[in-house]
Automatic annotation (TrEMBL):
Organismal lineage: Eukaryota, Viridiplantae, Streptophyta, Embryophyta, Tracheophyta
InterPro entries the record matches: Apaf_helical, P-loop_NTPase
Protein name as it appears in the record: NB-ARC domain-containing protein
Entry GO MF terms: ADP binding
Domain of life assignment: Eukaryota
Record organism: Triticum turgidum subsp. durum
């Protein structure tokens, strides 16, 4: 499966987490966009992280920054399958 383009990745992430991108609080948009970028167009990675966040009682800039930093540190691999596996491990381990 080909990676999603940026627009589809954003729709998937923001749709799952906020309903749509326009419903995302302004203070969360930048770090949310960075998380989408880190997921690299991988649909399973994108939806897993968005679902993890959507199931929390609240989402803050600090929480999104922590998720972002965790993704950056665990996604050093270039292999798509390894990156997806690492995101799934992160989303189920949190």
């Amino acid at each position: 499966m080909k990676p999603l383009d940026d627009d589809h990745s954003r729709r998937l992430f923001f749709g799952r987490l906020f309903g749509c991108e326009s419903d995302c609080p302004e203070e969360l948009k930048q770090v949310s966009s960075q998380i989408v970028e880190i997921c690299g167009g991988l649909p399973l990675a994108t939806i897993s992280i968005a679902s993890l966040l959507a199931n929390l009682p609240s989402v803050s800039v600090d929480l999104l920054t922590h998720i972002h930093d965790s993704l950056v540190s665990c996604l050093s691999s270039n292999s798509t399958s390894e990156r997806t596996s690492q995101v799934l491990n992160l989303s189920h381990g949190s």
